[in-house]
Amino acid sequence: MSEAGSNNSDPEIERINLRISRSFREVVDETWRERGFNSRSEFIRYALRESVNHPEGAGFWKDLAISEAQFDEGEGRSSDEIKAEYGTNDE
C-alpha cells in the first residue's frame, strides 16, 4: 500500500507496501469510511496498533485472512446467500 505523492517529511515515518486482494481492499475502504477515518492509511495504522497492543485479538485477523482466501478461491458465500439461508432481513 503505497501512497504516491505523499509529501510527508517526518523522518520517523516509513512507507511500506502491502499486497491484498482487490476484494479485501474494497472491504477495507468501505470500513474506514464507515468508521470515520480520514484515510485508508490512518485506518490500517490504527488496526496494526490495535493488533500489536492487544495480541489476544490476533485470532480475529487470522480468521479474517482465512475467510478472504476462501472467498477468493470461490469457497465463500455472499451476505445475501447467508441472509437467505438463515432468514434474516436488514429492513
* Structure summary, number of beta strands: 0
The major beta sheet can be summarized as: none
Order of helices and strands: HHHH
**If you compute it from the alpha carbons, what radius of gyration comes out, rounded to the nearest whole angstrom?**
16 Å
GO biological process, one term: regulation of DNA-templated transcription
Protein name: Ribbon-helix-helix domain-containing protein
Region (Disordered): 72-91
Biased composition (Basic and acidic residues): 74-84
Folded structure, characterized:
This protein is mainly alpha-helical. The protein has a domain at 22-70. Helices cover 55% and strands 0% of the residues. It is built from four helices and no strands. The N and C termini lie far apart (36 Å). Residues 1-5 have low confidence and may be disordered. This is Ribbon-helix-helix domain-containing protein.
Give the key terms:
mainly alpha, 4 helices, single chain, elongated, 91 residues
What is the element layout, followed by pairings?
Blueprint: H1 22-34, H2 40-53, H3 58-72, H4 79-86
Short description:
With 91 residues, the chain is mainly alpha-helical. The chain has a domain of 49 residues. It is elongated and about 50 Å long.
